[in-house]
Fold each of these.
Amino acid sequence: MSDKFPHPPKAVIFDWDNTLVDSWGTIQAALNMTFEDFGRETWTLEETKQRVARSLRDSFPVLFGQDRWEAAKDSFYGHFRSIHLETLTPLVGAYDLLCALRDNGTYIGVVSNKNGDFLRKEAEHLEWTPFFGKIVGATDAANDKPAADPVHMAMGDSSASQYENLWFVGDSVVDIQCARNVGATAILIGDEITGHGDTQNSATLSPDWHFADCEALVRVVKSFSKVL
């Protein structure tokens, strides 16, 4: 990581799950119900954290095979739909972080490998939709993270200058890879980098900046307002 203090961003793209909201338990529960439907062994929470990073359309064909993955997709979506809003919990400091960026005039978007419809329903449920210029989920763009396509979609008509100081904030190796693919500053939130078991060539990836939680990052963002 760099020893220099990060420059104030002109735009910030956030991952969603376990960056702004706590959803590991929900993802694990829906996955394990799906595994049980298909006679597969279930995963512990730690296994889920290391094996989930890519979008469903990229990971399920590997998990379930080309002949069964679409049926598994339908099973997972059914289970997830039944529980995701009632278990949705913002991470501590996430709302304050979004407020601080908005107050600084920073463009904010979301790029997630969660299904786009679920993603936007969760943002609406939390009443966070007005914070974001665009909310882009899995299958909304031609390719999902770590490809650059969903970031370009989330940035919309943003000027080239916003790309010059763009942050990508997430919790997984896929988020770091995506940041590299668009030339963004990679910022990690959380105790550890997740998703190593769901990606290749990830062992050497590290973020430009690492913050323990949203509260730590919001203190940095609020300091920018004193010099802007």
Amino acid sequence: MKILVVEDEIAAARRLSKMITEAVGDAEIMDVMDSVQSTIKWLSEHSQPDLMFMDVHLADGNCFEIFRKVEINCPVIFITAYDTYAIRAFEVNAIAYLMKPVKAVDLENALRKYEKLKPASSSFDYQKLLETIHAENDTYQKRLLLKIGQTIRAIELSEVAYFFTHDKIVTIVTPENRKYPADYTLDQLEKMLDPKLFFRINRQFIVSSKAIREMYVISKSRVKINLHPPAEMETAVSSERVANFKKWLTEESR
């Protein structure tokens, strides 16, 4: 079975390739692509594989751009960390989806599904998939699932004052100053959150407009904000974000 892996994280790509070869005796990993453009180029120059594993978010954009540029006839197993809107589309149109980090049992189930559907794989309507994705593209997360000890709790994003990261740990802070660890990076959260409600002021903080109490100009290119509840670190808008921050505040207040 000839397989193409599309994954922009080197460690994740190596791990996935190893898991595939262990699960499929005759698997041949044809190549590993790490971006939209490199995948488009590869598919334009090579025969299509029997199966593709494709991460949703790549180094240079969303993987669905590939489908707009190249006709893909082989089945695809998608990989995602948090895209709930995409998951709904995958359930209708794709062979399967795998949540990161990929588990061996989930991979094996997806491969079994591929074997069952293989004779009809060419009939998958990827155009319908793209239309569904486009229709859902403006949908942002409404809540997050948090693992606290042995329990899992859903927290509404309307209940979040801000997110901050310290020592590579991301913490969610509520207006009541309750703090919860988050299993996401700020980069991931920035893509998940409604930009009308949240703004990333610097590398350490993403804030809700409702949490901003006061603002001070501390230089021509920097603005300091006071949050409620008070933050443990300085909350200054980085100079390169100030213009967009002011625009965000103006648009959000309309």
Amino acid sequence: MKQAYCSTLPFWHKLSENAQDRFCANLKPQKYHRGERINGGISCKGVIFIVSGCLRVYMLSESGRDITLFRLYQGDVCMLSASCVLPQITFDVFVDAEEDCDCYVIPGAVFAEIADRDMNLKMFAYETALTRFSEVMWVVQQIHFMKVDRRLAVFLWDEMMRTGNELIPLTQEQIAKYMSSAREVVSRMLKYFASEKIVKIFRKGVMVIDKKRLKELALAE
């Protein structure tokens, strides 16, 4: 089963046979439970390959407020949990399991050793990290330059596109956490969206009922 999973990785067939053998031999299955802290601060937990579930990657301010950087789902790879692979990572990054997760993990030191000998794996690591840092910059842009109504519209639209469902099964507290905003602010804005017939609010979720209007808000300058 592990060998079959390895063969699905995007860089797999570019690796040398020796690199493939060492990589697969050190890749271990790992289960994480909802709410479990996987990585905290600057550490080298290892490179995590998500088979199912959802991981949240975030930072903590000195006051204890957390800022969601991005979430990872099936098929994604968490590189920021392996600071020894990317020595340029010099800031504290936290990773929590948002759902029960099935993953594969390879120790950071082993991944780094293989990557040092095989440029294809090193390129994969840096391309993955670059993609995530682009997402981080998008988060920074939203927090500092977007009004709350547009940020909420962007979030709801992205969730709807990701799941293919108008029903977004997230509580207001979860939405606020993922948006790095205050629950009271999100609650007030959702009530406004509801009054404008853009969404319906349920106890444990939000239903988008006017996709055209929501998209207009998300794309507004």
